[in-house]
Amino acid sequence: MSVDSYIERLDLSPDGDIGNDLISRVQREARFGEIWLTALRDADAHTPPFLTGEMAQWYRSRISGQRVQALAELEAQFRNIQTRHGQEALFVEAEMDRHAQEKWARIRAESSQYLESEDARKLASDLADAQRSYERKRAANGGEESRAWARYKYVGWLSAIAIPELFLNFQSSMRTIGLAGLNSPALAAGLTVLLALGIAFSSHVIGVCIHQWGDRFGGDVGRKDKLHSLRFFAIGWVIFTVAIGIVTYGRYLLFADDLERAILMGRTTTGGALLQVGYTVGGNVLVWLMGIVISMFAHDKVDGLGETKRAYDLAHKRYAAHRKELEERNERHINLEQSRNTKLRELEKREFQALPEYVALRRRVEDISAKDNGVLALLEGYRLALLGLVQESGARTVFMIDDEQSARSREMSPREFGARKLYLPCA
Questions:
Q1: Quick one: DSSP state of residue 117?
Q2: How do residues 280-327 score in pLDDT, each as one tens digit?
Q3: Residues 414, 399: contact at Cβ < 8 Å?
Q4: Contacts of 250 (CB under 8 A, 6+ apart)
Q5: How far apart are CA 75 and CA 427, in angstroms?
Q6: DSSP H or E stretch at residue 31
Q7: Separation of alpha carbons 25 and 66, rounded Å
Q8: CA angle (218, 219, 223) in 5-degree steps
Q9: Which of 95, 196, 371, 418 could form a disulfide with 165 if both were Cys (CB 3.0 to 4.6 A apart)?
Q10: Helix 223-264 vs helix 185-211: angle between axes, to the nearest 10 degrees?
Q11: Residue 410: what are its φ and ψ, rounded to 5°?
């Protein structure tokens, strides 16, 4: 009998012929930089999931033939049992594996149809382009992720430190526009805001250039890019010079009458008067310096890293949003499988478990399961040996697998591969 042949005659001891055949393959496979795994969506009794090429080849050549025959014989014996309602008994584990195979077939069909749509291809292409751009920038940043602040946070901080300038400069702005014969608080407020924006923008430009000096002016930067950065840096200084000049002149006009009166009365010197103006202008310079510090903290050392990260996150968000409908359909297939399995277990409890012949065959299922555990022990030992050799070598090894819910492959880390539960399907 095939069941007895699988259970009793197959020697699965670690030092036996079958066990030695498996472990002898590990040195060869450990040298590969890319190792493909059998996919969960294609799993059946002939090819269990999450096996490497050598593991799968060993299983097919040394285990699969006898095990598949044993399972087929056992299932035929189940179907020969009739319930009191004339229904054939079922090999529950095999039926549940078929439910899983049908689920993955439906998911694969819908995923293939989705990936062929024009919108999906466009979003996937945009995501891939954004990811490549970000990876290039991140590599230039020493492999570190972007730590740039979100725009709303950065603008919020710059705006917060610019608020004091509104109070510092409003009166002097009134005197400045007064030279043109205007006495409008609205115009003064507009000039005050414009000066605050100019100083904030100057802080942004100069802070960014200082923080990204190596990326903008380093030896490997092209002449064209250097000139572009130099113009950007110069604009920051020009705006600051103009803004602080207007502020200084406005402050002088604001205190001019009082200073002239004080000088005539001998209470202060001209140098002291100018120093008094300087003290009032110093508040604007302090705000400007604080803006430079904030700008340096808010940006990465590589120009454009934060922007490419935001573009990548946005592309990923759009792609995920578009996939949500597909994932909801896939979830329905998963729920359907669970419902079918629940009903199958209820049927087994209601109709099958009262049959003596069925109970006897379930003991044979337990015998096969115990033998399967011996097979899994050998496969687990191989996997541990393989991962140990990969870690000792220090070389980068990636495990590749076809994704369960799409027509694409993906990388699986050694840690993830080691955590995946190995099992042997019954159908």
A1: S
A2: 677 778 888 898 899 888 888 888 788 888 888 898 998 888 888 888
A3: yes
A4: 169, 172, 173, 175, 176
A5: 10
A6: none
A7: 22
A8: 90
A9: 196
A10: 140
A11: -145, 160
